[in-house]
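Table 4 source record.
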Amino acid sequence: INSHLKTILDEWAVYLSSPESAHVLNDDPKTGWFGEDAKKAMPTFVDDFICDPNLPHHGFTSWDDFFTRRFREGVRPIAMPEDDSIVINACESAPYRVVNNVQLYDKFWIKAQPYALKFMLDNDPLTENFVGGTVYQAFLSALSYHRWHAPISGKVVKTKIIDGTYYSQALSVGLDPAGPNESQGYICEVATRALIFIEADNPDIGLFCFMAVGMAEVSTCDVRVFEGQHITKGQELGMFHFGGSTHCLFFGPQVEVEFNLHNQTPGLDSSNIPVNAHLATVKRKNK
């Protein structure tokens, strides 16, 4: 079933990236993408994103071009770019969960969604490096900026795309009208996702992993870096296409990391932390 759904969704993604899809960006003054309702939801859109309101559809050539829009220069500055102890937010996202001492396997009690590294990381040989470590997860709404940026500087060790399920959610959460929002821990092990392993320049971090997870119908995790490439903090890693999503950061057990969640508690009611903003500080070890 999932393979057939993937074929359908891949065809739909091709259409959404074509010029023919631009009509979806209708200019209805009330309900259009740049109408009254949209302006209430994103009041600073023109100031924040590269666009031209004098052109049809603000200059976006397709629906996907609009969805993967870029911030204007300087709108999301990189927090302390020269300080390799500072980890920045990889996505424009709201904190969902922070879990310490994550194991290869865990017991799945009713209404619990524990992390199990073996399944999240698709049994990759590098998984052992994160046993006993920390996982941070955050949510991107449909209105969020959907490109990913490097939270640290370092060398890309491996990238991997894992095909998965669509619209799957944990039965224990009951009916979730927003799709898998309440099943974000669970879908980290079953949904389509991308892994980017990075050997950090900062030896106090060591091997690190960024994981992008498609939610609901999101079947495209678009990785834009390659194995062996050196990346700098804030550099673009890739993007989601088509809808809201979630992502995780993995730290090894040797990393002492203190999160800066901007005075909020992780959960479904948290608010976005800007991409490239200060997210965590890694404690420096004694020489």
